[in-house]
Amino acid sequence: MGHIKRGLIGIVAAAALLLAAGCTTTGGDSRQNLRVMLWGNSTDIASIKAPAAAFEKAHPEIKIVWETGDCGVDYAACKTLVAGKNMPDVVVPGSWNYYDMVNDGVIADLGPFLTKSNVDLGDFTPLVVKALTSPKDGTVHALPMGYNVQSLYYNKAMFAAAGLAEPPADGSYTYDDLRAWSKKLTIDENGNNAESPNFNPQKIKQYGYFNFAAGLIQPGYAPILAAFGGGILGGKLGDQCIIDKPQTIAAFQYIQDLMWKDHSTITPQLQQEEPGYSRWIKGQVAMQQGSHEQVQQVADQNPTLKYDMAALPAGSAGNATLIQIHNWAMYQGSKNKDAAWEFIKYMATEGSGKQMGLIPAYKDVALGSAFAQGAGEPSHLVDAQVTPAGWPKSFTNVDPANVWAAVSGQDGFGPALEDVMSNRKTAEQALSGLCASKINGVLKLQK
Amino acid sequence: MTVPNLSKISVAQLSGSVSPRAGFTGRDAKRIATAGYHAVMIIVVAAYIFPVVWAASMSLRTDANMFSADQLIPHPITLAHYEKLFTVLPDFWHYFGNTAVIAILGTAGTLFSSSLAGYALARFRFPGRQALLVTLLLTLMVPVQATLIPQYVIFRNLGWIDSPLPIIVPMLFGTAFASFFFRQFFLTLPRELEDAASIDGAGPWRSFFSVIVPLSGPAYLAMGLLTFVQLWNSFYVNSIYLSSQQNWVLTQALQSMVGRYDSQYGEIMAGVTLVSLPIVIGYLIFQRWIVRGIAMSGLAN
Amino acid sequence: MLFVLPQVVGLLLFIAVPLVASFGYSFTKWDLIAPDPTFIGLGNWAHLLQDGRIPAVLWNTAKFILLGTSSFLFFSLLAALLTYVPRRFVGVYRALLFLPYVISQIAVGIVWRWMFNSQTGPITLGVELFGIHSPAWLLDPATAILSIAAVTTWQAVGYGMTLYVAALQGVPTTLLEAATIDGANWFQRFRNVTLPMISPTVFFLMVTSLIGALQLFDPVVAMTTSNAGVAGAGGPSNSTRSIVLYMYNQMFNYSEQLSGLGYAAAIAWMLAILTFVISALQFFVSRRWVYYDGADRGRQRNPRKRRTRP
What we know:
The complex is a heterotrimer. By secondary structure, chain B is mostly helical. Chain B is built from 15 helices and no strands. The relative contact order of chain B is 0.12. By secondary structure, chain C is mainly α. Chain C has helices at 5-25, 43-50, 53-83, 90-102, 105-115, 122-129, 144-168, 173-181, 186-214, 218-224, 243-251, 261-289, and strands at 28-29, 38-39. Classes of the chains: A alpha+beta, B mainly alpha, C mainly alpha. At the A-B interface, helix 1, helix 2, strand 2, helix 3 and helix 12 of A face helix 5, helix 7, helix 11 and helix 15 of B.
């Protein structure tokens, strides 16, 4: 049966040809290679390459070599690069894993570079600078690419149809207001809203509210916890368990009530049928909590959606929101630190803009007309997304003690959170005493 | 009851429904059995591939209809996600080529080296044979995640990071999985096959290539297909070794459309559909090869 | 022995060193950042014996094997029996049954979460057709691992079928004819001719699918991670956390008391030893039922010589 043998030879020959075609020789290039590793989707990556092109033009001696890898989302996978001693020169940590890299000594202290150059940290959003300044020794290991702020997005047409005034852009309303609106804005197939005695929660056509808490993610529930005066971890280093504080339990119970008592909010179950965020984009959800990246997503997927945004409401403890930062940092072992610094400096200051759909932390840019009044930006952008970064109770999800992954996972409060969001237990049943019974043990192991 | 002249055991018989025999009912019964068989198969297969059809159908839906239960046959149908796929990933065909190089070379190498090893393990007595078999199996038993880092260090020392070499080269030497498979397969072939060849003066190499390989078409094609699909769809290892975008494989490109909060479902499914098609077409083509191979091998007559 | 040379060379070059290294790591602690691991003796192995989570993740894995591996072996054989005879359209049926194995994990995760959803999910609606109240499948601790096993079986049947078909097509028809002449019915032919002839493939699939099932990882990550990432996978309530998922989490979990990669290596090798024992048992038992036509040592019953009586 010669045809198999001949076939094999043919395959090998074809493959060799393909391989030869795939190998393009890199010609003589005297420029200095700067390896920059990005993460995110293709839109994110494109949004960074655009300003970087201007940098390369201004610095003809530097050639940027782009790589993609997990040093932002999943530091765990990135550790392979560290262990293999193959880290790129520049990486993009998020506020959530920034201190993992700082404490591991993976990213370099920028102190010497800051003193050498004319960069003034006072030019950046104060909350961001505070987040990046180590509570242990005051060092700074990254400059911000930008940040995102959780705020309330709402569908203007639905508010109008329900005869409701739009939420005040500056956040001068409460979570009780939000709950009441959410009920009025949840409508079943017969046109009854969730307050009506005839309301059928099995046949809902329009939901009042969506929060990423249904996907069990921190940026979803954390702002509500803070506005209620609670949280998951407290203390200067974020290594004290406060998840069973009455305020935290009250906040989780609030979320559960919206989902399961009022039926006005997307549950994890509904989320499986169709992600709540897709429902928002296609105009089935009246309000949702989200951040600035979503402006671009709506523009891409449903440009006809008429929406605006407002700052998050006040809970019993006041207004609060969560801020996540994406940062530019350089590898401690980099042999091109000067070039890396030039790049980082440029991208965080002059070159800053809509990198990864974020709000620039370089103040002049963030409040400048090119950004805040840019095409397609909602009219309440500054009130809803920039000002809240200055609220006293606003916070970032930095993790200086490096405990979040263990605390939030299946060994930590993960199962309890699932129980609350899926309505298997009340917040009280799921969380009461959890610090002593579980979380403190996890925290102790991480020390 | 004795039934002569049955050249092949038929499915209808396996399911016990009908036993064709000479006589007036024979042809009718056989026809009914065949119709019944196809009716059952069509229902079973349709139900079975429903989720796949669903995925393909998602690629043709508008964003507004993406998750609607009544959209199995999309209405309206849109090709927008396919267009968008190529704007988001302008180098789609380049990634396609990268993936093809890895999958083709890796598969060819594995089939060659592993079938040799499998043959030796099945037929020859040599010192360390049992030890080799045990070691091969042992390598399957340690989860890949555990050896990832030492492996990475080796490939870094070789200067192979950010090239397809760490994925292709080990495959060229054969995989434990495939070697074990070929051992099992060759053990089923009667020894008389080579005995006849060795009487004609053929050495082990000649009898392997001229007697055993031609008889083993189904095994080669089955293992080739599986290896190919695995290389074609693998993500985790590739994402670690292929860090610059020009070296990406298709799975990495698809993964880049998964967002932090929201994914481009339509584009992902369009990509998945395009990525899967070559394998399905390949399966249908190789299918014929398998059948022809058996007909020629003399095993099945 | 030239035949095994490439495989042996590859084994030594690319597999043996990492394998030995990972065994070595199990006696160390390493955060992956320090230039080298620190030797700590048997600490990780001692910790393994006290770690209360190990029995839990082993039990989850065992449940997956009981549900997933057995159904995989059974349904792939069934699919192969239904499609191996060359006749019209079987090629198409086979290609279609193979489809789930082909589509990439990203799509599997998205589609099957939807399949299991409690509002419009076909699985839920199907169950409720029988008047049974449907559980929440992936969101219910009681059914999550069953759901994952069902999906992995669904994906893998095409693969098992392909190997079974290759084996079935190698069964000499002369044997089946002889049996038929002897008056054997279809079950007797299957039991006494077909099954022994394909037993090496059955055995191969048994051993390798068990090894694979013990290393369950990707499907759990694809179906249970929300946006929280791999660290949050394994829910609800730990019910789908497999041994390898736990190992992966431990690999990057380092502190003064935790050994990071070192402990992960100890878990990996414990799993390897466990797998080895199970596989050795399978090999031992296989002597009683696996028939090798071309084996150089005989003593097995030979279907060629065996005649069945009606």
